[in-house]
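Table S5 (text form). Sequence records supplied for joint modeling of the two-component complex.
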Amino acid sequence: MLSTGEVFETLKMIDEEHLDVRTITMGINLLDCASANVERSCNKIYDKVCREAEKLVQTGEDIEKEYGIPIINKRISVTPISLVAASSFADSYVPFAKALDRAACEVGVNFIGGFSALVHKGYTSSDRILINSIPEALASTTKVCASVNVASTSAGINMDAVEQMGRIIKSAAELTADSGGLACAKLVVFANAVEDNPFMAGAFHGVGEPETVINVGVSGPGVVKAALTSVKGQDFGVVAEVIKKTAFKVTRMGQLVAQEASRRLKVPFGIVDVSLAPTPEVGDSVAYILEEMGLEKCGAHGTTAALALLNDAVKKGGTMASGYVGGLSGAFIPVSEDAGMISAVQEGALTLDKLEAMTSVCSVGLDMICIPGSTHASTISGIIADEAAIGVVNNKTTAVRLIPAPGTKVGDVVEFGGLLGTGPVMPVSQFSSESFIARRGRIPAPMHGLKN
Amino acid sequence: MQRSSAVITVNGIDRVGIISTVSSILSKNNVNVANITQTIMQDFFTMVMMVDISEMTCDFETLSIELETAGEELGVQVRIQHEAIFNSMHRLS
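The corresponding structure-token record, covering 545 residues in total, follows.
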């Protein structure tokens, strides 16, 4: 029999510590929607997404009501559109993005990910068309998310793609200048992208995935922070144990929701992504967890070590709680979406360089960072190259989601609203990377990429 | 997973009729009470009820709304959740 204490512990996590299931994401294979005729292919995509995800939102809401656990987002990831559209002979894939957007609106999800290309070793003709279409596709839709994988540990870094993505990000920002460059918040540049990530903007349905799949992303930075307040001043062994136990409980809840959603929708369960994903709400911050460990402000020396401990303990706690843990699993550090990160940047405690160091131990990368609108494309490419190098050499996923908000300068603040939050504009290096980026080609895979 | 049990929690300032109101809604909908734990600390009323909903005559959402509405009239928060959410978090079985 459950004890009153246990019941109220769970309720306190939900009511006061922002415990939630961040997303139920349905992956849908669209390879069978290919056609030589663009319109026919787009219609097939629209029809298939609407058919497969028809009950996704309602099912999520039903589970939310019956279990009393908030499920914040219901989302869809699809096969990378560069593969689906390859046989269409189209010279722009914007119509495909619009078809996805219409389908997402119809079924009521808040994002649909997979306007994507995987070019870590090189481009297909279709990849080129897709990447060139990204700025307009994102500017002319509201729910579509795009991602491009430019590097992997086994292929190295495609510097042609790194160079191009700097320009694509600038162009996406300029096309959405009136909303602070919002299109860039829906665009992720990856190294070692994973095929089963349920979180946006980087979700896509990999080719190794089944026809349809349910992946669930849990969250709960506030729960971890609250748990750590009970062990103030104690050693790191205790800190790690507390985080593991908390991550276990949070993941068990995610596992339950995932199984239930899978059963009700008759769609196979894929993975639970055990990630601490902050929101702009006070009390739902990863930075506050790091500060609870004893740092005066996130970004102080020791921050990387604190984040490394957190990321590892979250994985260890989550692994036992779910049969299948996957996705990105760890701690996210998006600046504009985390009240503690925003404050740390504004007080001068957290810099882009420190964030880069933190990405070598967190679960993803440089995320939701606003930089001055005047930043040169080659500087953005330089940042992408550094981040890709960290991912490739450390055999982990890294990503870059930068917003060069048009017309802004260091110290300005860009308001995106909702979960995307508020981005303080951060300084980048004033020294040029142009000649470095202009070399192009491919940086070879590291020695440990040759594992066979 | 047990799909037949649910947990009802009530929080708020104590007053006459809380248990009676909740119980009558349950009885009307053929929900059996398996266990009640109730405490009052400094006028603050806290109750946890384990109930069996396998023979329930309405759907879960209807019961949930009825309990919530009755709670609002009494000035307390009443909610019902499937027991599985608590078991998954606190039990390894």
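Note: DSSP finds 15 helices and 14 strands in chain A.
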